[in-house]
Structures are given as structure tokens and as C-alpha cells.
Amino acid sequence: MDAENINEFVILGYKGKVVNNDLMTNPEDGWVEGWYFEDHEKGKVRSYIFSCPCRWEVFPESVAQYTGFKDKEDNPIYIKDIVKSVSTGDIGTVISKDGVIEVYWDRFGIPTLLRMVNDKLLVIGTEFEG
Q: Long-range CB contacts (< 8 A, 24+ apart) of 6-11?
């Protein structure tokens, strides 16, 4: 079997923005969470988030992995999320570099390990939505 006909499955803990923003079948904000997988068929790659019993096609560039951390309001923090420091007001983007999860602070231009951030964070957006 060649690589074009194999479905690749990746572990639970992802989110993505739904391609078909149908309010009848999708969450109000268009974001879904669950397992991420890609379907390679006839030379075309399609990205999906699966959360039983539903499967949604998502924009591949919107897919982000859960970091294992939550923000001040108990919302999960994903790679590519834009976060704000509650005490300083600084804005940063959650990144993964060589498997290490960091916050890249806009004002300082340097990353800080996410687990080393002593301040509470608040997710205020995603890199995908600008």
C-alpha cells in the first residue's frame, strides 16, 4: 500500500477551525476539539477533527495541539494561541520549538517556557484568526 492511500492518525488533544461553517452542525464559534487525522486520497490531503460521533473537516493551518496547560479561566491552552499576562498585560504566542512549549512574548521578542511562566495567562485568540 502506498503512502497516498494510508490514513494517518494522531493522538487526542487538538483543535481546528471548521471549513464548512454550518451553524446547524458546528459549534457557534466554528472551533472543534478532539482527535486530529489527515486523509490522503488521490493526491489530496484533507484535515479532520474527530470527536465521537462527529467528524469535521478543518483548515489545516488552524490545527493546534493541546499543551496540557489551562489559562486563568480554566480554558485549555493550545499551540498557536495568543495569550495575555494577567499581571503585566504582555501579549505572547504559544509556540513549540523542538518539542518544547514556550510563550513568545511580542514586547520582548524572546520565548519563555510555558511551565516557567509564573503569571496567570488568559487566552485571547489564535494565530489563525489573527
A: 6/40, 7/37, 7/38, 7/39, 7/40, 8/37, 8/38, 8/40, 9/35, 9/37, 10/35, 10/36, 10/37, 11/35
Q: Taking the model in full, what pTM does it have? A: 0.80
Instruction: Name residue 68's beta-bridge partners.
Output: none
Q: Could you identify the residue written with the cell 499543551? A: 67
pLDDT tens-place string over residues 90-117: 999 999 988 899 999 988 888 888 887 7
Is 76 in contact with 66 (CB distance < 8 Å)? yes
Contact 105, 112 (CB under 8 A): yes
Cα–Cα distance measured from residue 97 to residue 122, given in angstroms and rounded to the nearest whole number: 21
8 Å CB contact between 83 and 103: yes
**Cβ atoms 83, 35 nearer than 8 A:** no
Task: Give yes or no for a contact between 47 and 58, defined as CB atoms under 8 angstroms apart.
Answer: yes
Beta bridge mates, 46: 39
Q: Which amino acid is at 3?
A: A
